[in-house]
Structures are given as C-alpha cells and as structure tokens.
What we know:
Largest sheet of chain B: 7 strands, mixed
Oligomer: heterodimer
CATH topology of the largest domain in chain B: Immunoglobulin-like
Mean pLDDT of chain A: 92
Helix content of chain B: 10-25%
Radius of gyration of chain A: 23 Å
Strand order of the largest sheet of chain A: 1-2
Order of helices and strands of chain A: EEHHHHHHHHHHHHHHH
Mean pLDDT of chain B: 94
CATH superfamily of the largest domain in chain B: Cupredoxins -  blue copper proteins
Structural class of chain A: mainly alpha
Distance between the termini of chain A: 62 Å
Structural class of chain B: alpha+beta
Distance between the termini of chain B: 67 Å
Low-confidence stretches of chain B: none
Shape of chain A: globular
Radius of gyration of chain B: 24 Å
CATH class of the largest domain in chain B: Mainly Beta
Number of strands of chain B: 12
Number of domains of chain B: 2
Strand order of the largest sheet of chain B: 2-3-6-12-11-8-9
Order of helices and strands of chain B: HEHEEEEEEEEEEE
CATH architecture of the largest domain in chain B: Sandwich
Amino acid sequence: MSSTLTVPIPASPEPAAPAASRKCDTTGLNVCLGAERFIQFNAVAAVVFLLVGGIAAILLALTRWQAVHLLPVDWFYRVLTLHGVNMLLFWILFFEVAVLYFTCTVPLNARLFSRKIAWASFAQMLIGALMVNGIILKGQADVLLTSYLPLVAHPAFYLGIILVATGTLTAVYNFFATLYVARRDRTFEGSMPLVTFGATAAAIIAVVTLLHGAIVMIPTFSYAMGWTAQPDPMWYRMIWWGLGHQSQQVNVCAMVSVWYLIGQLTTGAKPVNETVCRTAFLLYILFINLASAHHLLVDPAVGSAWKIWNTSYAMYLAVLASMIHGFTVPASVELAMREKGHAKGLFGWVTHLPWKNPAFSGALLSLLIFGFIGGITGVTLGTQQINIIAHNTLRITGHFHATVVGGTSLAFMALTYYVIPLIFRRDFIWRSAARAQPWMFGIGILFVSLGMSFAGSLGVPRRIYDIDHSGAFGAAAHLMLGVMGIGALLAVTGLFLFVILCVGTLLFGERNHGRAMADWGVAQALPGSREGSLAEDHWAVKGTIALTAVFLACFAVYYFANWKALADVWPVR
Amino acid sequence: MSLSIPARDWFKPPAGAEKLWIGLALLWCFVMSLMMPYWHFRGKQNSRGEAYAVAPVTFLERTERFAAANKVGERNGVPIAEPAPGGDAYLLGRMWSWYPILKLRQGETYRIHLSALDLQHGFSLQPLNMNFQVLPGYDHVLTLTPTSKGEYTIVCNEFCGIGHDKMFGKIIVE
Lengths: 573, 174
C-alpha cells in the first residue's frame, strides 16, 4: 500500500485488482474485499473504544450512586470526559463508518472507491482518538465532552477531535465516490435499496454536522494554542451543538437503517411502502439542521421566537419522520409474519417472532427504548418552555441514554451478530450468552434511563460529583440514583459480555468459509402461506396500529403532564 | 426488501393504516408546535433570553453596589440583599459560589440579573427545579415572581471545575 495519500477524482477509480470481491456463502451477495477489510478495521476499533467507554461508565455510575461514591472528584470529571468522547464520538463514528462502507458496496454490488482514502480516513480517526484519550488521561483536558468556553483544554484535545472529524469526512467522501462510481458503472439498475438510502441520508447530515465541528473547533484550537482571542462562549454553544445534536441525527438515520436491515435478515420483512420510508429519511435531511436550539432554550441572548421556531424544526417534521419509521418498521415485520401464516388475533404473530435471535431481540429493544423513552422524553424536554424544568438536570442524561445507548448502541450491537459471521466469517462462540446479551444491556439501560430521568425530575443536576453538600436533595433522589446504579451494573455487564463475545469469536470462533453462517433462528413460514399475499391489504397490520395508538397516548400524557409541572413553578419571563 | 433494489414502480402514495398514522402524527406535531406560541402569550413561565452585553468586571461592580445598598443582613460572611419590589437584583456566579443571598417578597416581581465572572455556570433553583444558563459577558435578565415562601437553594448545574459540586446560593422568600 502506497503511503502517498493523493485524492483521486471520482472519475478515475483504481484499476481493478485480481479477486476484488467474493461471493457470500450465506446470502449469495458479492462482498467487495476492500470494503470488507475496512469494515473489519473500523468495527474492531469501534468495539475497543466501546470497551474504554464502558469501563468509564461503570466508574461513573458507581460514583454518582452516592451510597458507593467510588472515584475521587478530579477523576470523576476526567472519566466523565473520557466516557463522553469514547461513547458518543469514537464508538459510534467508527461503527458508522463501517456501516457506510457496507451499505455503499454490498447491496449495490459495487466496489469501494478507494482503499487509500479508506486508509487515510482510518489513520486520521485513530490518531485523533488516541490523542484525545491520551490527553484526557494525562489530566490536561478535564473539560467534559462539550468543552464549553471559557473552560480550556490542552490543544491536543481539540486537534484530536478535529482529526476524528476530518477522518470521518474522508470516509464520507469515499462513500459518496463509491455511490457515484456504482451509478456510473451501472453495478445496479433502478433505485438504491432502502438501507443504502438511509445511510446516504446519514452521510449527508454527517457532512453538515462535521462542518459545524470544524467551524467551532478550529478557532478553539487556535485559542488554546494562544494564537487568537477567545471565541464568544455563546457563539461556541450555538455552533458546538450544531455538531453535538445533529450528529445524533446521523445516529438516528444509521439506527433506523439497521432496524430495516435486521427486520429483513430475521423475519424477511420488507418495507410496506418504499415511498413513505424514503420520504421519512428525506425529512431528516431537510428539517434537522436547526437542532442546536434544543440546548439553548434557557440561554441568554436568543429570544423566544428563535427558540420556538428552531426547537420545533419547522413544525416538528423531523419528529414526524421518526414517528413514521416507528410505524413502518414494526408494520413491515408484522406484515411479513402474517404473510408467513401467523395471523391469529392482534398479537398472535408476536409469539412466533425469532426471540432467540440476538440481532432481532436487540433491534426490537432498541426500537422500543428509543421510541417510548428516548423519543417521547426528547421532544418533551426540547419544548421551549418545558426546558426550564429540565435543562442540565439528569432528565437530559436520562433522555439521551435511551436514544443513543438503548437505541443506537443496542442496534449496532444487534447488527454485530451478523457482521462478525458474514464479514469476519467466524461463527459466534458461546451462543447462549449471545442470546441473553441484548436483554441484559437493554434492560440495564432502561433502568439507567429511568433512574436518571426521575432523579432529574427531582432537580438532581447532570455532570456533578456529589449532591449531598447542597442539602437540597432527599431520599427519593438517592433512591433513583440507586436505580440508575443497579441498571448500570446490568448494562455494563451486558457491554463487557458483548466485547468478550466479539473478541472471543474473532480469536476462537469457528470459520464458516464455504458454508452458510450458523443460523441464529429466523421467523418460520407455515405451510400454505404465501409471500406477498397481504400486499394489497392496507389494514392488515392491526398489532402495529394498536402499538402506535398506545405510543401516541403515552406521548400525549407525558407531554401534557410536563406542561402541568411547568405551570406549578414560579412565573418567569 | 430493504437490502435489495426495489421494484421499478416503488413510488406509491401511502394507503390505509399507514396513511392514517401519518395523518395522526402530523396532527400531533402540529398540536405540539402550537403549544409553544400559545404558552408564550398565555402561559406564565417563559425563557425570553433577555440579555445585555456586560464585561465581567462591570457586572461585579454592579453586584457589589447592589449588595451594599440593599443589605439587610449577613450569613456566613455573605450579605443578604433585599431589592425593592419591582426593582432590579443582581446575582453573580463564580468559582464556586453565588453572590449575594437574595431576600424577596412573595407575590412581588423582580428583575434578576444573572451573570458569571469566570466560567459558564448553571442557575438551578431547588427544590422548585427552575434552570437557566449563566454565561460570562452576558447579563441574563429573568423577570421573576416568587409565589411561594421559604428558603430556596441555588445549585450550580453547569460544570465549572473541581469545586462545582460545592457551589451554592440562597434565595429567601418571605
């Protein structure tokens, strides 16, 4: 591999190498070997950073669980910084790059545009991540993930994050170039598959997000070097959250794509209506770019009109997108189950779902936790006025542990149960433990999220070492922090089990070259059933209709209960 | 199949249950987006973000002048200041205390000026759980009407260094 990293233009892809692809022994799809190699690199790096973040997580939970109070104060904030960057940036970004490389090659029968660019991306991201972790552990960047000015870290912290961002952008470039070449060379005919479409939406939002990152991090790096004056702290907040919040929409897009993918792999589901699913992705792209307002709802110098308009993203059309996916994903699974002959009553099909398949159970828990907890709390807390009784309390942390951990991370874990057998070509070891893993992680995170949310409703701040000095918080707050702590023990045990399963399989898993991967169990069709038999029945998905009706009722109750709680505090304007 | 190329004629309008759900979801989104302007005009709790540029040293001077002129007592060396009903009060956040202690009257309205001397801080009034962001360089004005008596604790809920968890203030309402 040449070390010169010149960037070729998309019109001139590298010359074809011998045996550029292989035929998958399980799915029959062509797998680009270049993409496969970098999916492997990025996935392994992702899991390593997940482990770092997981060790940090348990140290934090056992410190905030005031009865244990494990870490000393300086290490608490240091480990909190470490947890934030490793989980929210490194684990997720490396995994998303792996998802991008997969979705732009295998489903399109295409080849990765350039290995050199993939190397350039991976090297930048890895060096950046190691720089950031190194400087945090040296105690020179105790600024938390957000690094709000005038807090200032060692320049290496900002430089590392810039490198991770440019590395990710480089991978996104490779993704778009691959799409372009695939389209030009007609490796596929017609529209791209839904999973690739969702990944493309994620990649487009990622570009906007990472540009915000560059705009905010470069002047801050320059300030940390002593070259330029300190940027304004309010300006910093606004632009930083253009990075910090929109990157969560990248995660949402990637996660929803994974839901669709796992729905197909485990139950044979296909989208009920492609137009609806794709339009929903389009709504994310169009209406997500104002999301930094969520974090500025009780800030000075931005007025009510700005806050109201920007927090509802133009009539909540991005929320509409998530609510659409929240219907279409379960609807596609239900329809597939009913077509397989499991048509008894409202929920008769549910008992025949492949519950023992860890990819399925992980994706299902991801959908439920993201929707019922993460989504409902997110929209409510992001309501302009309601934010007064939520800002910077543990309610916020409770919300995003349901979206990005219970939602995105769990979906990525679920996908891994197919990535390792299909891309690394080794069957999982200790399969009974693998079947239990999503449940441990999902239920653990559920308790973490609920404990945090209730503690936050009692006023407990996020990001604080100790709540006892103030005398403002009583036994109920401590109980809820205990719930969070016990949930964290379960979730982190699930996380460690995941890492052990992945590493163990990569080292000791049986190779499945030349045969199909060991089956996790998929939904079975009854004799006499016919695929597509319900294609014209637009009211067949009765279980999903009931489920989404319950969802909407929960949403409305929680939403208006919060308005009531707000009405009970002192008048303020 | 989500992983395979869709049929050529995939472009179809939504139908049946899907169409109903999209309609309901859109309606709900509409209700939620109308709630905020409604509350802005009819509700009593709003964050308007009223703010003025102020140098930290100027804000310190104003706060000290306010505390001296309105001092009605002292607790642990921190002055207790009681602003005139309807008047201005100054509250300063710094590593790691809120200054001064404010004494307010139930049912009266005050303009509370919030700012920070050094880092960002978080004004979190407990046990009411009302939260506002405090930035250096910004004089953030809350027009506040205490409606319940008692002693309230101001906790800092924005990370501001090693002493963050020991940064408190008081608002006394009589």
